Amino acid sequence: MFRVLVVSSWMQPDCVWLLTINMVLSDYDSSVLCVCYPQILPPEIYNILWDQILRACYHTLLDGFSAVRKCTNEGRALMQLDFRHFQVKVESLTRLRPLLTHILSKHT
C-alpha cells in the first residue's frame, strides 16, 4: 500500500533544535529592529550583522551533519529536509538574496 505524504506535515519541522534556532533568530531580528527604532538600520550594517550570524549557523549545521559517521539514506534525507527548513525560515527573516550563495561565496 502506498503512503500518502501530506505537504502541510512535510513543511512542519519536528526537530526541537531547529525550532529553537528559528525562534532565536526571529527574536534577534525583532530585537535589532527594536533597538534601532524609530530610525531604520542602514542596509549595509543590517546585511553585515545577518551575514556573520548566518555564517556561524551554516558552519555549525554543516559541521554537525558532516560529523555523522553512520547514516542511512533516510537519515541523509532528513538532514537535507532540516537544512531546507532552516534555509526557508532564514530567507523569510533576512533581506540577503540569494542567501546560501551569498554566504558560501565568501569562503572560497
Automatic annotation (TrEMBL):
Entries under InterPro entries matching the protein: Syndetin_C, VPS50
Segments forming domain Syndetin C-terminal: 21-99
Pfam families linked to this entry: Syndetin_C
Highest taxon, organism lineage: Eukaryota
Protein name: Syndetin C-terminal domain-containing protein
